[in-house]
Write a structure and sequence with these properties.
Layout (H helix, E strand, L loop, with lengths): L3 E5 L4 H12 L3 E6 L2 H10 L7 E5 L5 H15 L4 E4 L15 H29 L2 E6 L13 H21 L4 E8 L16 H5 L4 H13 L8 E4 L3
Parallel strand pairs: 1-2, 1-4, 2-3, 4-5, 5-6, 6-7
């Protein structure tokens, strides 16, 4: 396998954990996210594997910025075998009666439009090579709506699940596979955007970012003829 990957949301949470694990396994990884400082912190945490990681600050909600990022990645790596869409956001004021247009738009930009732009940027190379794996970190909110998640987040996650299905429907004959991960509660910085931020006792019962990273890597390492189309992951 051509062990090159692009990981969005690589500055924290599941994206960071996945990038670090891939780097430790010898992959070359492009670290993509809006904030250069958090991406560089991921690079520092990688230790000796940092030499195989590349920081590419990008607002994935901007298609022109994604095109620029993809050109830099292709220039550095030549091709990309795996895309892990782990970026995502929510807002404290998330219920229908209080959700602002700005927060709604920001959720769609990060959670749905961004993954779509990244998929469109890297799919042509995967088609040309006849192989590629796309892992979309969705959420169990993409299975069932709840007041905890809020409507904007739920809508984007249902959309991301649909994008995953569409990739498999259209691209599986070209050697490309897509996986939708549906995790429940994870102890990540995104929790700080909840209307009521969970305390340490609540967080201790949740999954860790590394748990979801392990699931993503499991799917990546399966034989090319195998697709785990959906994986639902929850704390015990």
């Amino acid at each position: 396998m051509n062990k090159t990957a692009v990981v969005t949301g690589a500055g924290s949470g599941v994206g960071r954990a996945t990038a670090l694990k891939l780097g430790a396994l010898g992959w070359r990884v492009a670290l993509v996210g809006r904030r250069a400082e958090t991406l560089h912190e991921t690079l520092r945490l990688a230790g000796p594997a940092a030499a195989s990681l590349r920081v590419v600050p990008t607002d994935i909600g901007n298609p022109d910025a994604v095109a620029t990022m993809a050109a830099e990645v292709f220039g550095a790596f030549g091709s990309v075998e795996a895309l892990i869409n782990a970026a995502g956001t929510n807002a404290p004021q998330r219920a229908l009666e209080v959700l602002s247009q700005a927060d709604y738009d920001a959720m769609f930009a990060a959670n749905l439009h961004g993954p779509y732009h990244c998929v469109q940027a890297f799919l042509p190379g995967m088609r040309a090579r006849g192989s590629g794996t796309i892992v979309n970190v969705v959420s169990d909110a993409g299975k069932q709506a709840s007041p905890k998640a809020g409507p904007g987040y739920v809508m984007t996650k249902f959309g991301l699940a649909g994008l995953t299905q569409a990739i498999n429907a259209e691209e599986r004959g070209r050697g490309i596979r897509a996986i939708a991960l549906f995790p429940g509660d994870i102890d990540t910085p995104l929790l700080n955007k909840r209307p009521v931020v969970p305390d340490a006792a609540a967080r201790a019962k949740m999954m860790q970012p590394e748990d979801i990273a392990d699931c993503a890597i499991f799917c990546l390492q399966l034989p090319a003829h195998v697709i785990v189309e959906e994986m639902l992951i929850r704390p015990r």
